[in-house]
Amino acid sequence: MIEDLYQDIILDHNRNPRNFGPLAEANRSARGYNPLCGDKVEVQLRVDGDRIAAIGFQGSGCAISTASASMMTQRLSGATLDEAEELFRLFHDLLTEGRDGDEDEDELGELEVFAGVRRFPMRVKCATLAWHALRAALSRKADDGPVKTEP
Ligand code: ZN
Q1: pTM to 2 decimal places
Q2: CA-wise closest residue to 104 among 119, 89, 124
Q3: What is the strand order of the sheet 51-60 is part of?
Q4: Can you tell me the mean pLDDT for 80-92?
Q5: How many angstroms from the chain centroid is the CA of residue 108?
Q6: C-alpha to C-alpha distance for 143 and 151, rounded to whole angstroms
Q7: What is the distance in A from the centroid of ligand 1 to the CA of 53?
Q8: Which of 104, 74, 59 minimizes the C-alpha distance to 13?
Q9: Distance 48 CA to ligand 1 centre (A)
């Protein structure tokens, strides 16, 4: 059912996104664009050594993309770069292959609410958009233009 897609926590983050707005003293950023839905997101980070000291996002998109970006920033504030990479992998697997076990479930925490999105392939791009932008931001210093979910 489509309503499974819009659980309370997703609606809450969409109505009241966390870490939304320009980030002071950002030293990494990347934009993402999902042409299938029209979602646009810019992820900004302040990386200090091997740690994400601060992370924020801006943009406009559907409830799924906004909530995913909001929950991502909440989760990764203060995380190490390795933790961010691992969480990206787990989240990506959750949405594309399903998880392998309870261990992943524990690590994903509230992000598990996006498991239902897997049944709606069009919306998977919405949920992963901010995460692809995150990964692009961490892998380069300059903003080389938007990351697209489609080639
Ligand atoms: Zn979308």
Answers
A1: 0.89
A2: 89
A3: 51-60, 39-48, 28-34, 147-148
A4: 95
A5: 12
A6: 18
A7: 28
A8: 74
A9: 31
